[in-house]
Amino acid sequence: MKRVRVAIVGSGFMGGAHLDALRRVERVELGAGKHVVSEKPLTLTSSESAELVRLARDAGVMTAVNFNYRGYPLVQEARDMVSRGALGRLLLVHGHYLQDWLLKETDVNWRIESRLAGASRAIADIGSHWCDLVQFVTGQRITRVFAKLFRAHEERMRDGRPVRIDTEDGACMVIELEGGVVGSLTVSQVSAGRKNRQWLEVDGATAAVSWDQEEPNELWIGHRDRPNESLLKDPSMLSERARAFAHYPAGHPEGYPDGPRNLFDSFYAHVRGEASRPPVFATFEDGHRAVCVVEAALRSDATSGWVNVEYGL
Amino acid sequence: MKRVRVAIVGSGFMGGAHLDALRRVERVELGAGKHVVSEKPLTLTSSESAELVRLARDAGVMTAVNFNYRGYPLVQEARDMVSRGALGRLLLVHGHYLQDWLLKETDVNWRIESRLAGASRAIADIGSHWCDLVQFVTGQRITRVFAKLFRAHEERMRDGRPVRIDTEDGACMVIELEGGVVGSLTVSQVSAGRKNRQWLEVDGATAAVSWDQEEPNELWIGHRDRPNESLLKDPSMLSERARAFAHYPAGHPEGYPDGPRNLFDSFYAHVRGEASRPPVFATFEDGHRAVCVVEAALRSDATSGWVNVEYGL
Amino acid sequence: MKRVRVAIVGSGFMGGAHLDALRRVERVELGAGKHVVSEKPLTLTSSESAELVRLARDAGVMTAVNFNYRGYPLVQEARDMVSRGALGRLLLVHGHYLQDWLLKETDVNWRIESRLAGASRAIADIGSHWCDLVQFVTGQRITRVFAKLFRAHEERMRDGRPVRIDTEDGACMVIELEGGVVGSLTVSQVSAGRKNRQWLEVDGATAAVSWDQEEPNELWIGHRDRPNESLLKDPSMLSERARAFAHYPAGHPEGYPDGPRNLFDSFYAHVRGEASRPPVFATFEDGHRAVCVVEAALRSDATSGWVNVEYGL
Amino acid sequence: MKRVRVAIVGSGFMGGAHLDALRRVERVELGAGKHVVSEKPLTLTSSESAELVRLARDAGVMTAVNFNYRGYPLVQEARDMVSRGALGRLLLVHGHYLQDWLLKETDVNWRIESRLAGASRAIADIGSHWCDLVQFVTGQRITRVFAKLFRAHEERMRDGRPVRIDTEDGACMVIELEGGVVGSLTVSQVSAGRKNRQWLEVDGATAAVSWDQEEPNELWIGHRDRPNESLLKDPSMLSERARAFAHYPAGHPEGYPDGPRNLFDSFYAHVRGEASRPPVFATFEDGHRAVCVVEAALRSDATSGWVNVEYGL
Questions:
Q1: B111 touching C, CB under 8 A?
Q2: Nearest-5° angle of CA C63, CA C69, CA C75?
C-alpha cells in the first residue's frame, strides 16, 4: 500500500475566529504538498475558496470537502440513474432541507452570529448540502438563484441576554441549472418536528426519483404508466459503483456515519492512485461552487431578483 | 325545510368557448337572485371575477367556488389548530401540487391551449387549489408572488399533429402572506409517479402541521421537544367543526367525493339560514382572489421579480 | 331497466334480540322470492346460516352479505393478480385486523355480551372480514384453524356497574387454506392507536402483495430481484374488472363508502341479469363460511388444537 | 483502563462442521477464564447451550450472545417504556420477521441443510431474534409455543443438482409470555420484497409501541384518545439509558452496525466493572433460552399442539 500524506481539516465544527486559523492551516498543508480533506463550508467567502482551489491546483494535490450526503449508496444510485438516462430529459428538481434545532428563541450556537459563522447561516449550513446534492445527482451546475430569506427571531437569548440576529433561519429559493432546468428549495432550521429532513426529487421525462436523508435506504422511483417503485438499498440491485458504497445486506440499514466513511475511502483510493473511476466526493472546486451559490442567494435576497452564480474559475 | 333557489354552474370541466357562455349563465342566475355555486376557476380574468363578486353582492345572494380540498375534515382541523394558536406564530408555509397526467408529448386536453383555458394552466388548474388551501388554513391572504414557470414541451401532439403550447407545465413559486410569512410552492403536471399530490406544511413557533391529499385521513403534527404526532381522522379527536366533516368512524377513510359533499352541505345550510358558524367553503371573493394570484404569478414570471397581488375589491 | 325486488336486511348494527327477528325477516323475504342483501354476520350459528343458504337456493334468488372490504378497487386488483398468476404459487398469507375502540374497561356496546352478539366478538366482528378477504383474494377456502383467544377485561363497566365479559377482545390465529398454504392472523379490538387497521399480505413464489384498509388506495407489490412497487389506485393501471370499482382519477382517494356502493352496484347488475362476470360480492354461501370459521376458531381455543372447518353444504 | 481478557467467537457465519469446533473453542475459552461473546445461535441444542451456561457460571465470567437488534436506541427506549409502565398492563404482542433471500429454488446456503445448521432454519436464524426482542422489550419469558412450519421448496438446486430440504422456510407461531400475555409471530425467508423486516408491536392497556428494523430510527406509539406519536431517534427525547445508544444527532440515522457496537461497548463496560446498570446485551442464559424456544417450536409443529418451553436452568 502506497504511503500518502493527507491533512484532515475540521473547520465546520468550530467556526468563529478559528475559521481563519483553519484556512491558514489548509494553505500551509497545501503548500506542503499534502492532499487535503476539509469540512464544509470550505470558506466563508468565494474569494477565499477560489484561492484555495488555485493553491491546490498549483500543488497538484487532491482535495475533498465533506459533503457527506453524497456518500449514501442510494444517492450514488440516483446519480447513476440520471447519468445513464433512466429518467430521460430532466424537467424539474425540488425539495427541502428542514431542521428544528434553532426553533426557539433560546436556541443559540456559534453559528447564529455572522461575525463567527459568516453572513449566511441556514443556506450556508444546510442549504449548501442540498445544492451540492442536486448538482451531484443531476451532473449540472446551478447557474441562477432567486432567494427570499426569513428570520424567525430578530433576537435570541444567550445566557439570559438578547443577541441581535443577522443571519437567516431559512429561505425559499428558486434555482436554475445549466441545462435550463428550474428547481425549488425550501431551507429551514425552525420547522418543528423536522430533525434533519433533506429531501430531493428529480423529475425527468420518463421517470422521477425521490430521496429523503431521514430514510436513506429507500429510493422512490416515480412512473407515469406503471406502478411507482421503492428501491431498497439492496446491493444486488444497485449499479456497480453504488454497490461499492453499500456495506450491509439488503434490509440492514446503512446509517449516517457510512456516508463520510465511503467518501474517505474513495478519497484515499484516489490519492493512492488505486481508483478506476472519477471521484464521487466533492472537491475544493465543488466546495467553492457551494460558497458561490450561498453568496448569490444572499445577493438575490438583497436585490429581490435573480442573481447569476459566478464561479470565476 | 326552507326552499332555496340554487344554481350549480359547472365550468371547469368544459372550458373553451363555453367558459364565456357559463359566465353569462352565472350573470343571469345572479341577476335572478339565485345563490350560485361555481366550478373553479371562477373566471379567466380578474376583471371578470371582480364583476361576478359585485353582481353577487348586489343581488344579496350567497356564492361558492368549488375549492373542494377544504372539505376534508383534517384540512378543517388544520385551520382550527392555526386559528386557536396551537401552532404559535407562523414562520413558514411550503408544499407542492404535483401530477403526471400531462407528462408526455402526446398528452393533450382542452386545458393545454390558452385560447380555451386561459393564459395559465398548471398554476390556474392546480396551483390555485394550493393557494386557496394555504390561505384558508392560515387565514391570511397571499400578498406577493414570485414565480418561475417552466414548460416541458414546446409542442404537443394532438391527433398526430403538433400543437404549439403557450401555457406552463409547472412553476416554482415563492409567496408572502399578509402577516409577512414567506412560503414556497412547487407546481407540476409533469412529475412522473405523482398523481394528485397536493401537500402543504405550515410551520409555527410551537408546532407544525403537514397534510397530503393522497393520504387525506392523516394530519402530521411536528414538535420540537416531544414526539411528532399523527392525527388520524378520528371524529372523537377533532374540533367540533372539523368533526362535522367526518362521516365515518376512525380508520374508515373519507374519500375524494366527501370533500365537495361537505362543502355543498355547508353551502345549503348557509343559504337556508341554518348555519351557526361562518362559512368554510370558498366564496366568489375567494375565487376572485385565486384568479388574482394566478395573474400575479404570470406577471412575475414575465418580469422576473416580485409582483404584489392586487385584489381590487 | 328491469324492475327487481330486493330486500336489504341490516342486522349488524342492532344485534341482540333483534337478530332473531331479522333472521325471520330474511326467511320471509326469501320465501317471497326476493333477492336479499344481509349485513354480516349472516347469523350467529352455522346451522342458521346453512338454513338461509338452502332457503335462498330453493327460492332461486341472489344473495349478498356485506363484506364491504371486497369493494375497494385494489382488493379486486389483488385478487386478479393472484388469479392470473402474477404472484406465482402461493406460499404464505398473513396479516391483522386491529382496532382500539374497546380498549378501556369503560368501553361497552351491545356487541360485548354473548347473549346479544353471539359467542364470539372480535373474531366474528372483524376477524371474519379478514377471513373473507383472504379467501376472496386467494380464491381458496380456509380448511383448518388454530386460535388462541384473549380477553383484556374480565369485567367491563356499564353505567357504573360491572358486566361480566364472556367474549374475546382478540385472538392469535393460524390458518390453513385448501391448497395447503398456511397463514396467520392477529385480531384485536384493544390495540391502542389502531383504528381500523385491516392488513393483509399474500406471499407468492414470484411476488407478494400487501394491502392496508387504512390506506386503501395503495397496493404494495414485493419483488425479490427488482424494486418493490407501489400501485396507486390509478384506473389506467388496473385490470378491467378492478377499474370498474374505481370512480375517481388517480390520486383522488376512494373512501370507505365506495366499497359497499360497488358491491351494491354489482349485486343489482346481477339481479338484473346485466352482469357479464361472476359476482365479486360475498353471497350467503360466503357468509355461511365466515360463520363456520368463527365457530371453528372458538372450538380450537376450547380444545387447544387445530380444528377443521366443516362447511356442511 | 483495566485490562480484560475477552474471546469473541463468531459461529453464526460459518456453520456446519465448524459449529462443533466453535463450541469446543468456547468451552476452552470459558475454561481459561475468559469472558466470551458468541454469535447466535449459541448452540444447536439446548443441552449444549445449558452446558455452556453452566461452564460460564463455574468460570465466573461474563458472557454475551450477539442478539444485535437490542442495540438500536429505540429498542432500548421501547423496553424502558414498558418497564416504567408507559404502556400499562400488557395485552398483546405481535409481529413478524420476513426476508426473501431464500425465495427461489436456486437459493442455497449452508443454512438450508439441517446436518450443518441444525433442525430449524428460519425460526433459529431469524425467529430467534424476534423472540429475544419480545422477551427483552417486555421483560417476560416465553412460556408456551404453538408453531406451524412451512416449506416453500421440498428440494432446492445446488450446482444444478437437487438437494432435499428438511428445514422450514417459515412458520406461523402463537406464543404465551410468563405473565399470560399472548402473541403471534410470522417468520419467513420466502416473502418477496421483504429484505430484513423484523417488526414488533407491543399493545398495552394505555398505549402501544411498534418498531420496524428496516426503519429503526422511528418508534410508533399508539394512543386511544390522542394522536399517535412517532418518536424519532432524538437523543434529547430518549431515556438516559437509551440515549447512551444514540451516537448521532436527531435525524442522522443510526445504522445496522451501531447495534452490535453498542452491545460490545456495553459488554466491555461490564467486564471492566465500569457499568452502573444491569446489562442490556443478551447473555448465554438468553442464548440458551432462544435455543429452547426454537426446540419447543419444532416440537409443537410435530405434535400439532402447544408446547411448554422448558428452560431447565
A1: no
A2: 110
